Amino acid sequence: MLEYSAPERPQIFLADFRADPQRYPLSTPSGKIELFSATVAGFGYRECPGHPWWDEQEAARQRQEAARWPLHLLSSQPRARLHSQYDHGSVSRATKIQGREPLWMHPSDAQARDIREGSVVKVYNDRGAILAGVHLSEQILPGVVQMSTGAWYDPLDPNEKGTLDKHGNPNVLTEDRGSSRLGQGCSAQSCWVEIAPWREALPPITAFDPPRFIEV
C-alpha cells in the first residue's frame, strides 16, 4: 500500500507561469502561450498550417458522407470497462442488450425506422456492419447516435471480408486513418451510419469463447 499526502495548495494549471512568466516560462519557443506554431507550419502539411483552421476540403467530404449515411455515430469511452478490458466480466455484460453493445438514439430517429427500445439493430455504412441493442433517450440529439468503444470483435464469418460483427464494435464502422500527417492521432471517435431493425434470428455471441486449441 502506498500513501500520499494531500498537496499543501491546490494544483492549478499554469499558476506559476501566470504569477511570474519571466521566472516560469512555458516550454514553447517564445516561453508564452502560442496561438501559432512556426515549427508546425514549417512542415508544409496542408492540413497543419500552424494554427486552428476550418478545413473546407474535409468538411465537403463529410457532407458527402452525411448525404449517404444520415446518422452521426459518436463512439465514446465505456463506463463498465477500461477500453476493451474486462468486457467478458459481469459488470460489462450487465450493460448489454440481448448480448449486444448498447446504442443510444433519439426516439424520433427510432420511430422513423420502426425501431423500439431494447430491440437489436444493424448499424452499417460502406465500411462494415455491426449489431447493437437500442436504448432510446431524448438526451441525445436527433440525427446523432452513441455507442461505447471496446466491445470484443465477434465476426459472423471470420473468413469473409466485411462480415457482420455480431457483438457491436464501432471500430468496424470508423475510418482507419491518422488525424493528420503530423500527429497521426486516433480519428475513430465518429463516423456516419444508417440503422435498420434486425429481423433475422440473432446469431450467438462467441467473442468470449476460448479458442479451440486451448480447450482441455
UniProtKB/TrEMBL annotation:
Cofactor: Mo-bis(molybdopterin guanine dinucleotide)
The keyword Oxidoreductase is annotated on this UniProt entry: yes
Protein keywords: Molybdenum, Oxidoreductase
GO MF, one annotated term: electron transfer activity
One matching Pfam family: Molydop_binding
Domain of life: Bacteria
Top-level class of the enzyme under EC nomenclature: oxidoreductase
Cross-referenced SUPFAM superfamilies: ADC-like, Formate dehydrogenase/DMSO reductase, domains 1-3
Residue ranges of every copy of the Molybdopterin dinucleotide-binding domain listed in the record: 71-191
EC number(s) reported in the record: 1.7.2.3
Cross-referenced Gene3D superfamilies: 2.40.40.20
Keyword Zinc: no
One Gene Ontology term, aspect cellular component: outer membrane-bounded periplasmic space
InterPro entries in UniProt: Asp_de-COase-like_dom_sf, CT_DMSOR/BSOR/TMAOR, MoPterin_dinucl-bd_dom, Prok_Mopterin_Oxidored
Biological process, per Gene Ontology: anaerobic respiration
Annotated PANTHER family: TRIMETHYLAMINE-N-OXIDE REDUCTASE, TRIMETHYLAMINE-N-OXIDE REDUCTASE 2
Record protein name field: Biotin sulfoxide reductase
Upper taxonomic lineage: Bacteria, Pseudomonadati, Pseudomonadota, Gammaproteobacteria, Enterobacterales
